[in-house]
Each structure stands twice: as C-alpha cells, then as structure tokens.
Amino acid sequence: MVEAPETVLPDAGEHATCGQCGRHSGKRWSFAFGKPVPKGAPGEGIIVKCSRCAIQHRPMVRRSLMVALVVGSLLTLLNQGDILFAGSWKAALYWKIPVTYCVPFCVATYGALSNAHR
Ligand SMILES: [Zn+2]
Predict the structure, then answer these.
(1) Are 17 and 46 in contact (CB under 8 A)?
(2) How far away, in angstroms, is 25 Cα from ligand 1 center?
(3) Are 24 and 16 in contact (CB under 8 A)?
(4) What is the pLDDT of residues 2-54, one digit of tens each?
C-alpha cells in the first residue's frame, strides 16, 4: 500500500506574506493556491496570497466564470425557458437572468476560497 506524501505549506506561521503584493496578512486572511509539494521539498508550486489578491486570482476567477456560464445557462433555461421561448419577455427578466448567473459564480468563488484558506 502506498501512502500519500504529507504536504507542508510554506510560511505556516501566524502571519503570511502575500506572494503577489508583499503585504503581510494574518493567518486567517491568507490563501494558498497551487499544488501542495511533498514534505521536505521547497515550497515551489504554492503561492500564498492575501485576501485582496486571492479574490483576483486569475485561474480561480476563470474557473468561477466557466461554472457561472454553464450552471447559469442551465438554471436560466430551467426557470425562464418557457418565457424566453414564448417571446413574452417581462421586465423582471432583466434582473433575474443576471442574478441567475451571479449565484453560481459566487458559490464557486466561495468554494475555491474556502478550499484555499489557510
Ligand atoms: Zn496581496
């Protein structure tokens, strides 16, 4: 049986330095992105970011946008499809449809940040 190697996050103290802007942030407000490296290996592959930089982390934002596109389209079709195909657009659709896309974006982003939280 092969055991999974233990992983060590670099800079695991009370404070972390953002790898992007250099700002110091508390341990609870820092996020680690990337693949964990095996124990003993240098911390390459992981970048620690402060909360400001974390919400702008491009791969996460890109993934959240893709989730929003797919899930938002499905939800719009399920919830508003009959109205859309009938051609009888109501004024409420102009806020309902954008909100339908915002919800999966927020959920995907929250999930990614929760997973990256240190
Ligand atoms: Zn930062």
Answers:
(1) no
(2) 8
(3) yes
(4) 555 554 455 455 678 998 899 988 877 899 998 666 666 665 688 899 999 99
